[in-house]
Write a structure and sequence with these properties.
Blueprint: H1 4-13, H2 16-80, E1 85-88, E2 91-98, E3 106-113, E4 116-124, H3 128-147, H4 152-165, E5 173-181, E6 186-192, E7 198-200, E8 206-208, E9 212-213, E10 227-230, E11 236-240, H5 242-245, H6 256-265, H7 272-287, E12 296-303, E13 320-322
Helix pairs in contact: 3-4, 6-7
Length: 326
């Protein structure tokens, strides 16, 4: 093997033109190696950007799937609640719920109890997913206990005990329960912490239904009273959660019960549905550009019987429900 000195001497004795030819022959290989190194370096620099793009696409996919799941849950909530419109004898019933954050913690229920009709408007403390998850449980409790034949006051007392047993996980709940006899227009009710429903009499008077007790789930044992009212032809019951009367405008003023009653009286052709949309529209106009801050539930029950007839309602007939996609 040649030593370094011998290799140097051998190279030095070669013709310079031959050395130049050898150099030119090697240049393409050197250039290719350099180019390959540059590509590898560029590829390594692009790798974090590619990974970030893939993660962004995956995140967008998960977000879309979550929105679809929440939308499906919101539709399921509406199916658990009262239909948009229903009729029982001469009584028309319309209801609506609105969620401020995807799922509602406020609800309305309409139950066929044979000769009577069960009514419920509730407000679960909190907003969003947590309150929304409790809605199915609360509506189930109402169906079981009001549907079992209990007086509304007895039913809210049992529901209160059930909620207390699940503390501290369970929320507090405001609940109005009623049992309507459409044959005689008699409503037996108990109001557990809800804003007092308003009865708009045909003669212009307004009555508040405040018999009941505290919010549910606050204390283990509570006393609840029942109230009784007769809805004559032309009378309207408006039951609601606080989300509608506490709706605020840009001056910080609340829509209030006064605004609700005025909107209920403002309808040219009174029907349960027309009154409901009049109240909702008036509240929205009052708020203007101010966003809603709370969920809301609204139910309107109107006796559209003949004011000249002696009977308040009609004979017992099946409750006709008109469920709409709201």
């Amino acid at each position: 093997m040649e030593t370094n000195c011998q290799l140097f001497e051998h190279t030095a004795k070669r013709d310079p033109h031959a050395l130049l030819a050898d150099w030119q022959h090697l240049r393409p290989g050197i250039g290719s190696a350099a180019s390959g190194y540059s590509c590898v370096a560029s590829s390594r620099q692009d790798e974090p950007e590619r990974i970030l793009e893939e993660q962004l696409v995956a995140l967008q996919r998960e977000h879309s799937e979550l929105l679809r799941a929440v939308s499906a849950a919101a539709q399921a909530q509406r199916k658990l609640c009262a239909p948009g419109e229903a009729r029982r004898g001469k009584f028309e019933i319309a209801s609506e719920i609105f969620a401020v954050r995807h799922l509602s913690g406020d609800f309305s229920l309409l139950l066929d109890l044979g000769v009577a009709t069960g009514l419920a408007v509730g407000d679960i403390a909190g907003k969003g997913l947590t309150a929304g998850l409790w809605l199915a449980h609360l509506t189930g409790l109402v169906r079981i206990h009001l549907g079992s034949g209990l007086d509304p006051a007895e039913a809210v007392a049992v529901i209160n005990r059930e909620l207390w047993k699940m503390r501290p996980e369970s929320p507090m709940v405001a609940l109005f329960l009623g049992r309507l006899d459409a044959r005689h227009g008699e409503l037996i009710y108990s109001n557990a912490g809800q804003p007092a429903p308003a009865v708009l009499r045909d003669d212009g008077r307004v009555e508040s239904l405040d018999a009941g007790g505290p919010m549910l789930g606050a204390v283990p044992v509570a006393s609840f009273a029942s109230g009784r009212v007769v809805l004559a032809p032309g009378d309207t019951l408006i039951s609601y959660s606080d989300g509608i009367v506490e709706c605020r405008n840009s001056r910080g003023e609340e829509f209030g019960v006064e605004g609700l009653v005025k909107a209920g009286r403002r309808v040219g052709w009174p029907s349960a549905a027309n009154i409901l949309f009049s109240v909702l529209g008036a509240a929205q106009d009052f708020a203007g550009v101010c966003p809603r801050e709370d969920d809301l539930a609204l139910m309107v029950v109107r006796n559209n019987g003949d004011r000249t007839s002696s009977g308040v309602g009609s004979s017992s007939e099946p409750m006709q429900l008109e469920r709409e996609e709201r």
